[in-house]
Amino acid sequence: MVWASVISGGKTMVVVIPLLIAAFLIAGLVQSLITNDLATRWLGSSSGWCGIAITCMAGGPYVYYPIAAVLLHAGAGLGVMVAFITAKNLWSLSRLPLEIALLGTHLTFVRVIVTLFLPPLLGILAEALFGKQVESIRKAMVV
Fold this sequence. Notes:
By secondary structure, this protein is an all-alpha fold. The protein has helices at 2-33, 36-43, 48-57, 64-74, 78-90, 96-103, 105-115, 118-130, 134-139. The longest helix has 32 residues, at 2-33.
């Protein structure tokens, strides 16, 4: 059983490593293309609903954490980043076919409808409660 686990983990690693490399290459590209002024204007704390909407719709699996780190470091607001990360975890389009196949269309539809408003609301809540701490969060980042 241990050997089967090691083999399974190795297979997963072979699939995930190229995705992680691509994600960090994309993050580097985003970092070179998006200036701090641009990130602050479109995604900063004062961007409001616009910044939250932009980040809720962008990104994909294995890509959004490096992009989130780059954007936060470049000046994106805390609420925008919370909305972005929450949306990516709740609204993953890549898992919909499997979810529909295993759980059915009705349950999948209910889950999507129930979670539809969570990322923007959590972004607003995070900004209201913790938005003033964004600079200390940036300083503590690895990137």
